[in-house]
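Input (structure):
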């Protein structure tokens, strides 16, 4: 029997099962991750977070989507890990090193530098990532940016009329994105952004930290807003700061929900 403690947390409603496996490493094949994330047959979460030892940071963080696939970065989860461990942290992820700092009741996370080169997104072939010459019905000419994971950002007059639940998976799986993509649809109101995100491997989400970062960066880079910018999602609000050549900085809440025990063998 392989049993252990887990923690349930959320960042703006984007919820996580966090397992601290630093002392006792835990295998996490895709089937086990899927079963843990299942909201009817498992514990239930938007992402499963597995913490481990790191040789280059305070802790290593692995991130699994509900489909069992492992992804590179998650801003909301990064804030939750800092809040859970109750200390400033360097976090090793597949998308690079992330720095997290306790900031009163919030957590500020330095997400690393945004990448814009088509190969770094990655895209299937060379093109202008600042305004991709592509469109999917009313969603056209996105900016592509990598914030530890790939994002396409569309600016529209109003977010609500866009059927992202239908268009999101079409864009996510388009062949132009060889590692799939997170789809961000945003409108700008003065110096604030309203954002909806279709998250790669997870679906429509009430909050996506890296999506807020990518959208904030895209809006600042295009001169639509100035840094810092407030990004509103249905789950809540994040503050994004960025300047060219500098890391992306995100500040927002992280909420502890409950803890529990589980026999991980029960999940495959």
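Output (sequence):
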């Amino acid at each position: 029997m392989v049993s252990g403690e887990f923690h349930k947390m959320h960042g703006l409603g984007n919820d996580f099962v966090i397992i601290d496996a630093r002392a006792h490493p835990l295998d996490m094949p895709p089937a086990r991750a899927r079963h843990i994330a299942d909201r009817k047959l498992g514990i239930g979460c938007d992402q499963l977070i597995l913490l481990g030892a790191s040789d280059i940071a305070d802790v290593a963080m692995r991130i699994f989507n509900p489909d069992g696939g492992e992804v590179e970065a998650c801003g909301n989860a990064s804030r939750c890990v800092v809040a859970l461990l109750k200390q400033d942290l360097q976090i090793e992820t597949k998308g690079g090193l992330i720095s997290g700092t306790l900031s009163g009741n919030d957590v500020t996370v330095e997400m690393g530098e945004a990448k814009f080169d088509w190969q770094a997104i990655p895209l299937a072939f060379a093109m202008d990532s600042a305004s991709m010459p592509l469109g999917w019905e009313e969603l056209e000419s996105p900016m592509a940016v990598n914030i530890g994971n790939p994002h396409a950002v569309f600016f529209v007059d109003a977010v609500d009329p866009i059927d992202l639940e239908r268009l999101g998976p079409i864009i996510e799986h388009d062949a132009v994105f060889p590692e799939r993509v997170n789809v961000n649809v945003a409108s700008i109101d003065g110096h604030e952004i309203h954002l909806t995100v279709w998250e790669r491997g997870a679906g429509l989400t009430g909050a996506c930290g890296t999506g807020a970062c990518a959208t904030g960066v895209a809006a600042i880079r295009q001169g639509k807003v100035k840094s810092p910018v407030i990004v509103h999602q249905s789950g809540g609000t994040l503050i994004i700061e960025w300047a060219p050549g500098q890391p992306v900085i995100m500040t927002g809440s992280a909420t502890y929900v409950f803890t529990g025990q589980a026999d991980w063998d029960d999940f495959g």
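Notes: The first strand starts at residue 3 and ends at 11. The radius of gyration is 18 Å.
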